[in-house]
Amino acid sequence: MKLDPDLQSIQEVRTLLHEAKAAQRLLESMSQTQIDAIVAAMAQAADREAERLGALAVEETGFGNRADKAAKNRFVAADVYGAIKDVRTVGIIRKDEQHKVWEIAQPVGVVAAIIPSTNPTSTVLFKCMISVKSRNAIVISPHPSALRCSLEAAKLMQQAALEADAPEGIIRCLTQPTLEASTELMRHKLTDVILATGGTGMVKAAYSSGKPAYGVGPGNVPVYIHSSADIPKAVRQILQSKTFDYGTICASEQALVVDMAVKPSLIQELKRQGAYFLNEQEKQNIESVLMVGKGLNPKIVGRSPQIIAGMVGISVPSDARVLIAEETAVGHEHPFSMEKLSPLLALYTVNDWREGCRRCIELLELGGLGHTLGIHCEEEAVIEAFGLEKPASRIVVNTGTTFGGIGATTGILPSLTLGCGSFGNNITSDNIGPQHLLNIKRLAFGLREMEPSVPAEIDAPDPIEHAVEAVQARGKPGITREEVMQLVKSVLAEMQLH
């Protein structure tokens, strides 16, 4: 009897989880030196196969371009690895001698990893490396449209780990990714934590699974260009960032918000560096294919400007790097104001930084709360105001938001999973790393004795006061306390005479 495909996929999940759990118990017994050697081998393999995996991803999904997909893979192999290679994740990882508290790292167990179609191979490499670094096993659920390249990336990581003496089974990937399989993976008793990167629906499913989950929200990233900005430098960084892999990283710029005073020079520089400005009719034509219902049209995601323009019969120069439309409003009825995951930008004009603040908040509230904000500015007071007021977890200053947000050109932790905090209904605002996949136990020494508790003395009631209260409680209305006191004293005096 042939099993239903959904049942087969569910059974595969259960089988892989049991294999992963058994392997993780062996991995947990390894030393820091052994773990570091395994992760180093994985990073070397990722670097060696970066080009091939990038090509596979583009060939299968159609998103982005080979060179930038390869660059993402190398980012994991170099930047992410460089940031985590010396991090202690085994045994006692910190000692606070002043307060006599030792911190002990313990893995969470088995990680369920949900992989997006926009960045499939790099996300697999990334999640495998941070999981193994923290002595966890990982079971991967790839996006169905990126199955082959995700499987290949997972096999590469598994083989590299095995050659470095890791246990068999610490890295597993579903071969039949269905909605039912992903649900089973997230809810199964052997799953200990979920790393969810994907659409809003999938992230919500992760949070409702009953398991601890790190999810990410959408990134409708606004970029404010202040009148003090170095315009040529800002444009160069923005275009390099926005066009990287045709805009498939969620931290890429979605809207430019520019001060009126420098708008002419900004437009001139954008055109000089390869931006194509859409006229009103062309803008409307592009808007007609931007959305499908209330969601982004997947056919425009990660496509070149020429392909997107060609969808609606617009001819743009072969060297056009990005398509820009001027916009004045924010909302679902204005598609250019939303996250586009492609080389498309909206351009808003404001009078000053305060108006720029309000516009950036509007854009974040439309669909990017908690994610990333960019600012190009040379005045520290304005930069500080943006940092204090905005509901964004990463405020990227004078650099492209794609590279700044993931930690490639800034000092924040290099990562491909960016938390949005409570702004975006996420548990953390951090860039996710191996430290998020550890339980930290604290061994705490006694520093002082507790002072013994001394029971409070119970004072015996004054007999006269007690008598006064009793008489007053039973007395006639209108009698004063002083009169009652005098009466009680006279009665007691007579009793003493006898």
Task: Provide a descriptive summary of the structure in words.
The chain has 498 residues and is of the alpha/beta class. It has 17 helices and 17 strands. Helix 5 (120-133) links the parallel strand 3 and strand 4 (137-141). Helix 3 crosses helix 4, helix 4 (66-84) runs parallel beside helix 5 and helix 5 (120-133) runs parallel beside helix 6 (147-163). The longest helix is centred in the first third of the chain and has 24 residues, at 5-28. It is globular and about 120 Å long. The termini are far apart.
Short summary of the structure?
This protein is 44% helix and 17% strand.
Could you tell me the strand content as a percent range?
Answer: 15-25%
- Alpha-carbon distance between the two ends: 110 Å
Describe the sheet with the most strands: 7 strands, parallel
Low-confidence stretches: none
Secondary structure category: alpha/beta
Question: What is the helix content?
Answer: 40-55%
Number of helical regions: 17
What does the average pLDDT come to?
Answer: 92
From the alpha-carbon coordinates, what is the Rg to the nearest angstrom?
A: 32 Å
Spatial order of the strands forming the largest sheet? 10-13-14-9-8-15-16
| Strand segment tally | 17
